[in-house]
C-alpha cells in the first residue's frame, strides 16, 4: 500500500446488524419502562435480545478490525481516522456526564432552595410548611411518599478507598503503556494485569457500597432527589468502569498473544484514553457527590 492511501473496507454486514440490535434495545427499554408494575410484558425480552445481538456484533466486528490491522491493511490516514473517532467518542461521554453533573448542580443551587421558599420562585411554604432545604437532602418535602435515608455514605471510607484505587490504576496503566513503547513485554503484561485487578476491586467495593446504602442507610432510588442523583451518577460511572475493565481484559489477552508494537498500538492507547477519562470523572464524583 502506497504512502497516503486511504483504506476503504469492503462492504460489511455489521452496521445494519448493529442498527437492528440498537432498535431492539431501544424498543425493549421503552416498552419495559412503560410496563413496569404489570405482570407481563415483552420489553425485557426485546431488551435482552438486542443486548445479546449487540455483544455478538461487537465481538465479530472488533475481531474483523483486529485481523485487518494485524495484516497491515491500515495506513497512517486510517490511524488518524481511528484517533479522531475515539476522540469524538470520549467527547460525547464528557457531554453525557456534563448533563448529569449539570442536573446535580441545578438541583443543589436552585431547585432545593426554591423548595425551601428562597427567591421569587420559592413556593415551598404553600406546599410543605416548615420544610428546611439542605444538601444532602435527608428530610424530603413528602417523606411519606419518598422516605429519606437515615444518613449519607461516609466519603472517607469506601469512596476514598475507591478513589485511591482508580488513581493508582491510572498510574499502573501509564507504566504499562510506557513499557509497550519500549517493547518490554513482561513489565507490560504485569502492569496491565495489575490495572485490571484494581478495576475489579473497584467494582467489588462499589457493589459493597450499594449494599450498605440500601440495607443499612435506606438510601435508594426512591429516597427523593438525593437518592436519584446519587445512583444515577455513580451507577452510570460504575457501568463505564465495567465496560473499561472488559476492554482492559481484552487488550491484556491481545498483549499475551503478541499483538501491538512500539510503533503501532492505537488499540491499546484508545483503551488507555477511555480508562483515564473514567478516572477523572470519578474524581469529580468523589468531590461533588460524596464530599461537598
Task: Explain what the structure shows.
By secondary structure, the chain is an all-alpha fold. The protein has two domains: 1-74, Helix Hairpins, CATH 1.10.287; 75-291, Up-down Bundle (Four Helix Bundle (Hemerythrin (Met), subunit A)). It contains eight helices and no strands. Helix 3 packs antiparallel against helix 7, helix 6 (185-217) packs antiparallel against helix 7 and helix 7 runs antiparallel to helix 8 (266-291). The chain is globular, with a radius of gyration of 23 Å. The model has no long low-confidence stretch (mean pLDDT 88). Belongs to the cytochrome c oxidase subunit 3 family.
CATH fold call of the largest domain: Four Helix Bundle (Hemerythrin (Met), subunit A)
Shape: globular
- Biggest beta sheet summary: none
Q: What percent of residues are in strands? A: under 5%
The total number of structural domains is 2
Amino acid at each position: 500500500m502506497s504512502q497516503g492511501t486511504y483504506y476503504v473496507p469492503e462492504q460489511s454486514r455489521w452496521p445494519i446488524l448493529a442498527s437492528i440490535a440498537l432498535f431492539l434495545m431501544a424498543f425493549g427499554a421503552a416498552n419495559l419502562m412503560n410496563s413496569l408494575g404489570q405482570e407481563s410484558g415483552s420489553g425485557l425480552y426485546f431488551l435482552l435480545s438486542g443486548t445479546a445481538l449487540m455483544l455478538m456484533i461487537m465481538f465479530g466486528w472488533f475481531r474483523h478490525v483486529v485481523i485487518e490491522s494485524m495484516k497491515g491493511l491500515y495506513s497512517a490516514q486510517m490511524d488518524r481516522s481511528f484517533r479522531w473517532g475515539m476522540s469524538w467518542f470520549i467527547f460525547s461521554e464528557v457531554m453525557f456526564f456534563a448533563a448529569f453533573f449539570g442536573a446535580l448542580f441545578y438541583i443543589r443551587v436552585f431547585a432545593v432552595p426554591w423548595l425551601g421558599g428562597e427567591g421569587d420562585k420559592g413556593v415551598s411554604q404553600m406546599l410543605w410548611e416548615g420544610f428546611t432545604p439542605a444538601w444532602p437532602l435527608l428530610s424530603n418535602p413528602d417523606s411519606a411518599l419518598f422516605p429519606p435515608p437515615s444518613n449519607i455514605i461516609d466519603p472517607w471510607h469506601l469512596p476514598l478507598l475507591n478513589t485511591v484505587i482508580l488513581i493508582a490504576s491510572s498510574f499502573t496503566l501509564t507504566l504499562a503503556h510506557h513499557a509497550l513503547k519500549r517493547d518490554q513485554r513482561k513489565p507490560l503484561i504485569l502492569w496491565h494485569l495489575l490495572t485490571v485487578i484494581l478495576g475489579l476491586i473497584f467494582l467489588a467495593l462499589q457493589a459493597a457500597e450499594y449494599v450498605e446504602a440500601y440495607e443499612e442507610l435506606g438510601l435508594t432510588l426512591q429516597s427523593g432527589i438525593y437518592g436519584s442523583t446519587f445512583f444515577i451518577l455513580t451507577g452510570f460511572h460504575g457501568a463505564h468502569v465495567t465496560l473499561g475493565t472488559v476492554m482492559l481484559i481484552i487488550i491484556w489477552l491481545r498483549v499475551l498473544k503478541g499483538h501491538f508494537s512500539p510503533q503501532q498500538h492505537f488499540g491499546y492507547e484508545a483503551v488507555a484514553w477511555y480508562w483515564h477519562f473514567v478516572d477523572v470523572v470519578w474524581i469529580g464524583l468523589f468531590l461533588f457527590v460524596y464530599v461537598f
